[in-house]
Design brief:
Elements lengths: L1 E3 L1 H8 L5 H10 L3 E4 L2 H14 L5 H15 L3 E2 L3 H9 L5 H13 L3 E3 L2 H6 L4 E3 L3
Parallel strand pairs: 1-2, 1-4, 2-3, 4-5
Helix pairs in contact: 1-2, 1-3, 3-4, 5-6
Length: 130
C-alpha cells in the first residue's frame, strides 16, 4: 500500500501532463491510501473544472464516485499533533502534511509531484515515476 496525494488522483481521472504516470503507478501499486481530506480536495478540483466548463455536473459526480470507489477502505484519519509537528518543521501546509503523516503511520511512501513535499520530506515523499 502506498499513499497518494489528491493531485495524483486528479492526474488519474483528469487527462493531463501526468496522467500516464498516475496510470503506471496504479498498475505497479494498485493499493492506494489517503487521508480522508482527499475527498474535499478532489471535490474542489472538480469544482474548478466545472466552473471552467471543462466538466459538467454529471461528469464531476461520476468522477468523484469513481475515485471514491478506488479509495474505498483505504481512507484514514491522521493524528493532529503529528500533522502540526510536520507543519512546524517544514514550510508545507497542514493539508499537505496530512499525507506525509499518513505515509509515516503506514510505514510507506507518499507519491506526489508537489515540490515542497518532495524537498521537505525526501525520506517519505517520492515523485511519480515516468
Amino acid at each position: 500500500m502506498i499513499v497518494v496525494d489528491t493531485n495524483v488522483l486528479a492526474y488519474l481521472y483528469l487527462p493531463g501532463q501526468y496522467t500516464a504516470r498516475a496510470e503506471g503507478l496504479l498498475q505497479r501499486e494498485p493499493e492506494w491510501a489517503a487521508p480522508v481530506l482527499w475527498r474535499s480536495e478532489f471535490r474542489n478540483i472538480l469544482s474548478s473544472y466545472m466552473r471552467q466548463r471543462v466538466l459538467n455536473f454529471e461528469q464531476a459526480c461520476d468522477l468523484q464516485a469513481e475515485a471514491e470507489d478506488l479509495m474505498a477502505g483505504a481512507e484514514f484519519e491522521v493524528d493532529s499533533p503529528r500533522v502540526l509537528e510536520l507543519v512546524r518543521d517544514s514550510d508545507c501546509s497542514a493539508y499537505d502534511c496530512e499525507f506525509v503523516a499518513l505515509a509515516m503511520k503506514l510505514g510507506t511512501r507518499l507519491h506526489t509531484m508537489d515540490r515542497k513535499l518532495l524537498r521537505a520530506f525526501p525520506e517519505y515523499a517520492t515523485a511519480l515515476a515516468r
